[in-house]
Automatic annotation (TrEMBL):
Its main location: cytoplasm. It comes from Halobellus clavatus. Residues 1-38 are annotated as: Disordered. PANTHER family: UREASE ACCESSORY PROTEIN D. It holds the Pfam family UreD. One of its GO terms (molecular function) is nickel cation binding. Keywords: Chaperone, Cytoplasm, Nickel insertion. This is Urease accessory protein UreD.
Length: 348
């Protein structure tokens, strides 16, 4: 498994302990592919959840989506959702001529203790899909166990997937563990984003959550291309300390996974691509270059190991600023990869 990292040194694209080049490229067994449960969460696994236990109806959500080319455009050909997930159809507003968008909804108040959710998204050959959530995901206060989400993304040859949910909000005493794996066939690409908010900031709740862990594994076949882990536990290490989040509250990450980009005729090198994404992130409203901004965002970008793509990280005081910064980088990356900007938001 990859070494544990924090979202430190975002403005420089990661510090020496955060260097993904130290962790990619090796053959993997199933435990590495799936991302084993973070060791800090093993002790919570057996804690009894009062009233409604792990595995009870509503506690184990399932979402299974598949996209494929049909009649010359991308169609949602499979959508299975088990509470708390709900899918009400697709939105035909993507700037890409064959692109399709799905917003995943949830009627629940958020992720509660003992929840275990599984998400699977498959994009078949040549299809273009964008999956997001209709609103922010709240991780509720807990006194037993934890909430966990496993996400598996598969993109077949020539396909393109964007998995960019709305921000994750960690309430006081929340425990959350997320494991995400994305498998890319030759010629496939993916953009994966997340924004983490350390509490209900408007009411002064800041870094009052118990524990947060998230891992990403990007693979091609049995070859591990990228491994990235984040682990925050305010009781063990102050997230506002230098080298972690410092003066900022919110952090976000955008993984632009395009293993076939570097060296393609007419395409930029990964170094130039990273520079372009960094420029987009800092020039967005509220970014580093915005002298009038009240919500300054610091951002950095770096090429991933094994020519896998580019990582963009952003730190800010509010979720809106970090989201805008990453969205600008996302739109720039999307234009380079598939020739169309990011689709407009249809959630407000």
């Amino acid at each position: 498994m990859a070494a544990e990292t924090t979202p430190e040194d975002a403005a420089d694209g990661g510090g020496p302990d955060d260097d993904p080049s130290n962790r990619g490229g090796q053959e993997t067994d199933d435990s590495t592919r799936d991302g084993a449960l973070h060791p800090a969460f093993e002790r919570y696994e057996g804690e009894v959840v009062p009233s409604v236990g792990v595995g009870a109806p509503g506690k184990t959500g399932e979402l299974d989506l598949s996209f494929a080319i049909a009649d010359g455009t991308t169609r949602l050909v499979r959508d299975y959702a088990r509470v708390p997930f709900h899918v009400s159809g697709t939105l035909g507003h993507d700037p890409h001529p064959t692109g399709e968008t799905v917003y995943v909804q949830s009627p629940s108040g958020g992720i509660a203790q003992g929840d275990r959710h599984d998400v699977a998204v498959r994009v078949r050959e040549g299809a273009v899909a964008h999956v997001s959530t209709s609103s922010s995901t709240k991780v509720l206060s807990m006194d037993q166990n934890y909430g966990g989400v496993d996400i598996d993304l598969h993109v077949e040859a020539g396909g393109h997937l964007e998995y960019v949910p709305e921000p994750l909000i960690l309430h006081a005493d929340a425990r959350y563990c997320q494991r995400l794996a994305v498998e890319l066939a030759p010629g496939a690409s993916a953009i994966v984003g997340d924004v983490v908010v350390p509490g209900r900031l408007a009411r002064g709740e800041r870094f009052a959550f118990d524990r947060f862990a998230a891992s990403l594994r990007a693979l091609r076949g049995d070859r591990l291309l990228v491994a990235d882990d984040a682990h925050l536990c305010p009781a063990e290490r102050d997230p506002s300390a230098p080298g972690v989040l410092d003066e900022y509250d919110v952090y976000g990450t955008l993984y632009v996974l395009a293993p076939d980009l570097d060296g393609d005729a007419g395409r930029p090198t990964l170094s130039a691509f990273a520079d372009a994404l960094h420029a987009a992130a800092v020039e967005a409203p509220g970014g580093e270059s915005d002298d009038d901004a009240t919500d300054t965002v610091a951002a950095g970008a770096t090429a991933l190991p094994n020519d896998a793509g580019v990582l963009v990280r952003a730190l800010g005081d509010r979720a809106d600023g970090v989201t805008r910064s990453l969205r600008a980088a996302w739109s720039t990356a999307r234009t380079e990869l598939i020739g169309a900007e990011a689709p407009p938001r249809r959630k407000n």
